[in-house]
Amino acid sequence: MDQPPFAVMLMNVNGYLTYPVFFICALTLFLSLFVVPSSLARIYCANIALPGFLSTLIYICATVFQTGLFDDDGPEPHSFPEKIRGFHQFLRAFSQHEYIYFSTLTVILAYIGYAKPFFFQQIMEKRTVTVLFLVGYVWSAITVIFVLPRVFAVHFLEIMRADSNFVPPQMATIAMFLILYFVMLVFYAMTVLKIRTHKVLITSGSSSNLIRKRWNVLISILIYCTPPNIFVGLALAGYICDASIEIQDLWNPDQWPSIEALEKWLATGDNCSNIRVLSQASTNIRLFVTSFTALIAFREYRKSIVRGMAVVWNAALVRILPSSIRSKMHISSPVFIVHSTAISSNT
User: Where, by residue number, does the polypeptide cross the bilayer (predicted)?
Assistant: First the structure.
């Protein structure tokens, strides 16, 4: 079946973004582990970047070493390479599901941090947020398995039969997905209202520094959540469409007069195929947007990147410029520019 031109373009862009996604996710993990201080933003960004880093790492290694893991014919059925390929597919789907959970949780916690600061402090001090994120991993893994049961429950994990009734777990998973998405949109709207309300206080000069800081956090959440939600909506449309096909039992060969009739429907009559292709072809685009906007939206990561760039730039100047010029420019060590950058970023 020929793919629409827009889907072909997305697949090409998706392939080109493999290395940028790997770099951004690796940078996010490095900053989260070694540079950025403990905060809600750090917990969120590290967990969001992990599956994207692992999935692109598997793909890059398989491509560099020419394993044939992602060739059209694929590895032998039930072989270890096929399990690796299935794990790669699982990670890519997992990144979608964990985003909806973690972003919803982060939006709620950020809003609570503004509206109920003492309650938020209790949550962070009692490590409750860590438990909530661990629950997100379990929830995301389960929903991936049952929202795409024929891929993971039957073929990859082999915990269900191909003739099983997938409708109840699939519909329950989609319902939970929709509830989370709706809750996130509600808190998203509440965040927008808070921003509009307190913008008046800030512009009038009647706000404290604490209000300004919390207002900036809400702005960061708003900047971060807007672009990735477009891809979440596309994935939701695909899941709902696939569920409608599952309800009609159209993937069951016994429902068709012949295998040829089923293959003809798959080639020409599957109305969900375009949505499915668009969603799968935009995976790296979604990962890139999600990771890149996180680095831009959250102030701790912006400051860390600026400081790192200052160190690299200063080191390059030390190597290139003569000592006489460096002394006139007051460039002697990376500490100077890092200190200057830190001062400017705090003003």
Answer: 16-36, 48-70, 99-119, 131-152, 172-195, 215-240
Please calculate the CA angle 146-288-152 and round it to the nearest 5 degrees: 20
Q: Where are the alpha helices (DSSP H) in the chain?
A: 5-16, 18-34, 40-64, 80-115, 117-125, 128-147, 149, 167-204, 209-248, 259-264, 273-281, 283-297, 299-320, 323-328, 334-345
Q: What phi, psi does 297 have (nearest 5°)?
A: -70, -40
Closest CA to 153 of 141, 139, 137, 136: 141
Separation of alpha carbons 49 and 26, rounded Å = 8
- Residues 6+ away with beta carbon under 8 Å from 89: 151, 152, 156
Rounded CA gap, 285 and 289, in Å? Answer: 6
- Pair of tokens at residue 63: 């491509």
Taking residues 333-340, what's their average pLDDT?
A: 45
The Cα angle at residue 9 between residues 225 and 150, in degrees rounded to 5: 70
Is residue 116 a contact partner of residue 186, using CB atoms and an 8 Å limit? Answer: no
pTM across the whole model: 0.78
Residue 125's CB is within 10 A of a number of other CB atoms, namely 9
Question: What sign does the dihedral 88-92-94-99 (CA atoms) show?
Answer: positive
Residue 242 contacts by C-beta under 8 Å, 6 or more apart in sequence? 148, 170, 272, 276
Beta-carbon contacts of residue 246 (< 8 Å; ≥ 6 apart)? 166, 167, 170
The residue type of 308 is: G
CA 219 to each of CA 66, 123, 196: distance values in angstroms, whole numbers, following the listed order: 44, 22, 10
Query: For position 327, what pLDDT does the model report?
Result: 62
Between the alpha carbon of residue 315 and those of residues 199, 270, 325, 326, 329, the distances in Å are 41, 57, 14, 11, 14
What would the pLDDT profile of 238-251 be if each residue is shown by its tens digit?
Answer: 778 878 877 877 76
Residue type, position 4, single letter: P
Nearest to 19 by CA among 51, 55, 46, 71: 55
CA 163 to chain centre: 33
Is the Cα dihedral 87, 93, 95, 99 positive or negative?
Answer: negative
3-class secondary-structure state, position 52: helix
pLDDT in tens, 181-223: 888 888 878 877 776 666 555 555 545 565 566 666 666 666 6
